[in-house]
Amino acid sequence: MRSDSDAPPPSDPIALKILVAGGFGVGKTTMVGAVSEIKTLRTEELLTEAGRPVDDLHGVEQKRSTTVAMDFGRITLSERLVLYLFGTPGQERFWFLWDELARGALGAVVLADTRRLTDSFAAVDYFEHRRLPFAVAVNCFEGAERHPPETVRQALDLDADVPVVLCDARQRSSARNALVALVEHALSRSARPDPAPR
What we know:
Blueprint: E1 14-22, H1 28-35, E2 41-46, E3 65-78, E4 81-87, H2 98-102, E5 107-112, H3 121-129, E6 134-139, H4 149-156, E7 164-167, H5 172-190
Parallel strand pairs: 1-4, 1-5, 5-6, 6-7
Antiparallel strand pairs: 2-3, 3-4
Helix pairs in contact: 1-5
Protein backbone atom coordinates (compact mmCIF):
# COMPACT_ATOMS: atom_id res chain seq x y z
CA MET A 1 0.00 0.00 0.00
CA ARG A 2 1.30 3.43 -0.99
CA SER A 3 1.58 6.07 1.72
CA ASP A 4 1.22 9.84 1.32
CA SER A 5 4.96 10.14 1.79
CA ASP A 6 5.43 8.13 -1.43
CA ALA A 7 3.30 10.54 -3.48
CA PRO A 8 5.21 12.77 -5.90
CA PRO A 9 5.56 16.37 -4.73
CA PRO A 10 3.05 18.77 -6.31
CA SER A 11 4.47 20.48 -9.36
CA ASP A 12 4.53 24.22 -9.77
CA PRO A 13 1.84 25.66 -12.02
CA ILE A 14 2.71 26.60 -15.59
CA ALA A 15 3.11 30.37 -15.92
CA LEU A 16 2.20 32.01 -19.23
CA LYS A 17 2.79 35.58 -20.32
CA ILE A 18 -0.18 37.24 -22.05
CA LEU A 19 -0.43 40.71 -23.57
CA VAL A 20 -3.58 42.83 -23.45
CA ALA A 21 -3.30 45.18 -26.40
CA GLY A 22 -5.40 47.54 -28.49
CA GLY A 23 -5.98 51.18 -29.26
CA PHE A 24 -6.02 54.18 -26.98
CA GLY A 25 -8.88 54.15 -24.46
CA VAL A 26 -10.20 50.72 -25.40
CA GLY A 27 -10.18 49.32 -21.86
CA LYS A 28 -6.84 47.51 -21.45
CA THR A 29 -6.13 48.87 -17.96
CA THR A 30 -9.72 48.15 -16.94
CA MET A 31 -9.48 44.54 -18.15
CA VAL A 32 -6.20 43.80 -16.38
CA GLY A 33 -7.56 45.33 -13.18
CA ALA A 34 -10.86 43.42 -13.42
CA VAL A 35 -9.30 39.96 -13.64
CA SER A 36 -6.12 40.35 -11.61
CA GLU A 37 -6.02 38.54 -8.27
CA ILE A 38 -3.18 40.79 -7.11
CA LYS A 39 -3.05 44.55 -6.89
CA THR A 40 -2.27 45.67 -10.42
CA LEU A 41 0.82 47.62 -11.28
CA ARG A 42 -0.22 50.65 -13.32
CA THR A 43 1.95 53.21 -15.02
CA GLU A 44 -0.66 55.87 -15.70
CA GLU A 45 -0.20 59.58 -16.15
CA LEU A 46 -2.81 62.30 -16.40
CA LEU A 47 -3.69 63.53 -19.88
CA THR A 48 -2.63 67.13 -20.36
CA GLU A 49 -3.44 69.99 -22.70
CA ALA A 50 -0.01 69.49 -24.28
CA GLY A 51 -1.08 66.04 -25.43
CA ARG A 52 -4.33 67.13 -27.10
CA PRO A 53 -2.78 67.54 -30.56
CA VAL A 54 -1.54 63.90 -30.55
CA ASP A 55 -4.18 62.11 -28.43
CA ASP A 56 -7.39 61.39 -30.31
CA LEU A 57 -10.09 61.53 -27.63
CA HIS A 58 -12.97 60.98 -30.05
CA GLY A 59 -15.30 58.50 -28.35
CA VAL A 60 -13.35 58.60 -25.07
CA GLU A 61 -13.84 62.24 -24.12
CA GLN A 62 -14.13 61.38 -20.41
CA LYS A 63 -10.71 59.71 -20.31
CA ARG A 64 -8.42 61.49 -17.84
CA SER A 65 -5.29 59.29 -17.72
CA THR A 66 -3.30 56.98 -19.96
CA THR A 67 -0.86 54.09 -19.63
CA VAL A 68 2.67 55.19 -20.46
CA ALA A 69 4.57 51.90 -20.00
CA MET A 70 2.42 48.91 -19.03
CA ASP A 71 -0.15 47.44 -16.68
CA PHE A 72 0.66 44.21 -14.86
CA GLY A 73 -1.59 41.66 -13.19
CA ARG A 74 -1.95 37.94 -12.53
CA ILE A 75 -4.82 35.47 -12.74
CA THR A 76 -4.86 31.80 -11.79
CA LEU A 77 -6.99 29.88 -14.29
CA SER A 78 -6.49 26.54 -12.55
CA GLU A 79 -4.11 24.92 -10.08
CA ARG A 80 -1.91 24.10 -13.08
CA LEU A 81 -2.09 27.39 -15.01
CA VAL A 82 -1.28 30.98 -14.09
CA LEU A 83 -1.39 33.92 -16.50
CA TYR A 84 0.80 36.98 -16.11
CA LEU A 85 -0.92 39.87 -17.87
CA PHE A 86 0.90 42.78 -19.46
CA GLY A 87 -1.29 45.63 -20.68
CA THR A 88 0.37 47.58 -23.49
CA PRO A 89 0.21 51.35 -23.93
CA GLY A 90 -2.27 52.32 -26.63
CA GLN A 91 -0.83 55.59 -27.87
CA GLU A 92 1.37 55.44 -30.94
CA ARG A 93 4.24 57.31 -29.32
CA PHE A 94 4.63 54.45 -26.79
CA TRP A 95 4.49 51.58 -29.30
CA PHE A 96 8.26 51.14 -29.13
CA LEU A 97 7.62 49.35 -25.80
CA TRP A 98 5.56 46.61 -27.45
CA ASP A 99 8.59 44.64 -28.71
CA GLU A 100 9.97 44.28 -25.20
CA LEU A 101 6.59 43.44 -23.71
CA ALA A 102 5.92 40.82 -26.42
CA ARG A 103 9.16 38.93 -25.78
CA GLY A 104 8.30 35.49 -24.41
CA ALA A 105 4.53 35.98 -24.63
CA LEU A 106 2.23 33.07 -25.48
CA GLY A 107 -0.16 35.44 -27.23
CA ALA A 108 -2.34 38.52 -26.91
CA VAL A 109 -5.90 39.64 -26.41
CA VAL A 110 -6.60 42.56 -28.74
CA LEU A 111 -9.36 44.68 -27.23
CA ALA A 112 -11.55 46.40 -29.80
CA ASP A 113 -14.15 49.17 -29.61
CA THR A 114 -16.63 49.02 -32.51
CA ARG A 115 -17.06 52.80 -32.36
CA ARG A 116 -13.37 53.15 -33.28
CA LEU A 117 -12.61 49.81 -34.92
CA THR A 118 -9.82 51.23 -37.09
CA ASP A 119 -7.80 51.74 -33.89
CA SER A 120 -7.50 47.93 -33.71
CA PHE A 121 -5.68 47.52 -37.03
CA ALA A 122 -2.25 48.42 -35.64
CA ALA A 123 -2.44 45.73 -32.93
CA VAL A 124 -3.83 43.11 -35.33
CA ASP A 125 -1.07 43.88 -37.85
CA TYR A 126 1.58 43.76 -35.11
CA PHE A 127 0.65 40.25 -33.95
CA GLU A 128 -0.01 38.90 -37.45
CA HIS A 129 3.40 40.14 -38.62
CA ARG A 130 5.13 38.46 -35.66
CA ARG A 131 2.98 35.33 -36.01
CA LEU A 132 2.00 35.61 -32.36
CA PRO A 133 -1.40 34.03 -31.57
CA PHE A 134 -4.09 36.52 -30.64
CA ALA A 135 -7.82 36.74 -29.98
CA VAL A 136 -10.00 39.79 -30.52
CA ALA A 137 -12.25 40.77 -27.61
CA VAL A 138 -14.87 43.34 -28.52
CA ASN A 139 -15.35 45.51 -25.44
CA CYS A 140 -19.09 46.18 -25.34
CA PHE A 141 -19.24 49.79 -24.17
CA GLU A 142 -22.57 51.15 -22.99
CA GLY A 143 -24.34 52.91 -25.83
CA ALA A 144 -22.17 51.31 -28.52
CA GLU A 145 -23.93 49.41 -31.28
CA ARG A 146 -23.56 45.64 -30.93
CA HIS A 147 -22.18 43.74 -33.90
CA PRO A 148 -21.97 39.94 -34.30
CA PRO A 149 -18.44 38.50 -33.97
CA GLU A 150 -18.44 37.47 -37.64
CA THR A 151 -19.12 41.06 -38.70
CA VAL A 152 -16.14 42.23 -36.62
CA ARG A 153 -14.01 39.42 -38.11
CA GLN A 154 -14.82 40.59 -41.63
CA ALA A 155 -14.23 44.26 -40.78
CA LEU A 156 -10.78 43.44 -39.36
CA ASP A 157 -10.00 40.92 -42.14
CA LEU A 158 -9.11 38.21 -39.62
CA ASP A 159 -8.23 34.62 -40.43
CA ALA A 160 -11.04 32.14 -39.79
CA ASP A 161 -9.29 30.56 -36.78
CA VAL A 162 -8.75 33.82 -34.84
CA PRO A 163 -11.25 33.87 -31.94
CA VAL A 164 -13.55 36.89 -31.79
CA VAL A 165 -15.52 37.23 -28.55
CA LEU A 166 -17.77 39.86 -27.03
CA CYS A 167 -16.82 40.97 -23.54
CA ASP A 168 -17.26 43.57 -20.86
CA ALA A 169 -13.75 44.48 -19.72
CA ARG A 170 -15.15 45.63 -16.36
CA GLN A 171 -16.53 42.19 -15.51
CA ARG A 172 -14.09 39.60 -14.19
CA SER A 173 -15.89 36.57 -15.63
CA SER A 174 -16.34 38.18 -19.04
CA ALA A 175 -12.71 39.29 -19.27
CA ARG A 176 -11.58 35.86 -18.02
CA ASN A 177 -13.53 34.18 -20.83
CA ALA A 178 -11.61 36.26 -23.38
CA LEU A 179 -8.32 35.13 -21.83
CA VAL A 180 -9.43 31.49 -21.89
CA ALA A 181 -10.35 31.83 -25.59
CA LEU A 182 -6.85 33.13 -26.32
CA VAL A 183 -5.07 30.40 -24.34
CA GLU A 184 -7.10 27.66 -26.03
CA HIS A 185 -6.38 29.18 -29.44
CA ALA A 186 -2.66 29.56 -28.75
CA LEU A 187 -2.30 26.00 -27.46
CA SER A 188 -4.28 24.64 -30.40
CA ARG A 189 -2.12 26.58 -32.83
CA SER A 190 1.09 25.38 -31.21
CA ALA A 191 0.03 21.80 -31.94
CA ARG A 192 -0.27 22.54 -35.69
CA PRO A 193 2.51 23.15 -38.22
CA ASP A 194 3.58 26.78 -38.40
CA PRO A 195 1.49 28.47 -41.14
CA ALA A 196 3.06 30.52 -43.89
CA PRO A 197 2.93 34.28 -43.26
CA ARG A 198 0.02 36.19 -44.81
